């Protein structure tokens, strides 16, 4: 099995990006969307999530362990490639390059976001509610940072879903890969809309 | 018909030996009709004088078949890796820039050492083992439509263009590259070759194997023979995934 470790890590990296991290991302953006219905709706949804039983176990195994395995191994993958879009400006090569850039941006954004919300709440410094987000997004710099962060995250997820389908041999023919390009583009647009709508609800 | 003063300008990235630093040298050679890059280089070899009128050493390059089936004469021509035998001067922008492929160790000038590709073919056992102590008789028949399909994959000439174009084949990674992965698909689909299917899949699942593909798909865009390399990669992704599921807790299935 030692010789297979790299194959195993790569496939695990691909799998964890979608299950559970991708599913968690969708759930998180959907819960955030309560913000468009006003502070009370958001606060009660956030409260519900906060009071889930076995919260620490769920957070560890559904979010933090898979997320940071995916992130740290992903940084290693990103830095072992030698990007060459200037010589080979094909669409998929650009997507390959943007996947690595968006991965790094997403890691910075998510780490900052976890620090500012979950860790600060854990330390007892803040309470996670509508007012906290309203406060953060009052700062125009943070508003731009959050918008870029969310778009980068949804892009990384949607494009990663495309490569997930190839890496597991689900989409094989060129035609199936073109169709999945359009489907994942749709996923990107829809999730970006859900995420940005919530950010603007806090900010405006 | 032939104008006396029409010239072709070549800018060649040269290197005297594997260890020395590369440098550019410009050559101006008389134009002839229907020249390809190789006949232009032969002109330099016939009269090794650079554009400044200084005598220099003739430019070294590799070549073999001169009809794009051997893969030996690959080099970077105006930024893209391709065979110099089928690179026609009339279709190229001037000055024509020639450089050795960067993925492989440079031996001299435009000649590179593609040994790693042949080592990869050995690693994945890209052959049908039939040698034994007695005559095995005729092998199982292959359907004609399957043979035609397999013929497309067999066009690979190990030229190195797909490895050169791949962002994941570089000095920081030991990725085997698209060519050998596609050869596994070819030999695993052969009725006799399929008898050693698992050995090839396991080689692809080892260090530097197919999992290192990042789906930039530059290979399929660059392959001079139009081999469906990314379809082969996805197909081997499927085969290795199934193989890993079946043998997850160990397996007593040698083949299938």
TrEMBL record, chain A:
Gene3D superfamilies recorded: Fumarate reductase/succinate dehydrogenase, transmembrane subunit
GO cellular component: membrane
One MF term in the entry's GO annotations: metal ion binding
Transmembrane domains' residue ranges: 12-34, 54-76, 97-115, 143-170, 182-203
Keywords noted in UniProt: Heme, Iron, Membrane, Metal-binding, Transmembrane, Transmembrane helix
CDD domains associated with the record: SQR_TypeB_1_TM
Record carries keyword Membrane: yes
Pfam hit, one: Sdh_cyt
Subcellular location(s) per record: Membrane
Residues annotated as binding heme: 28, 70, 113, 156
Entry keyword annotation includes Manganese: no
InterPro entries reported in the protein's UniProt record: Cytochrome_b-558 (IPR011138), SQR/QFR_C/D (IPR034804), Succ_DH_cyt_b558_Firmicute (IPR016002), SuccDH_FuR_B_TM-su (IPR000701)
Protein name: Succinate dehydrogenase
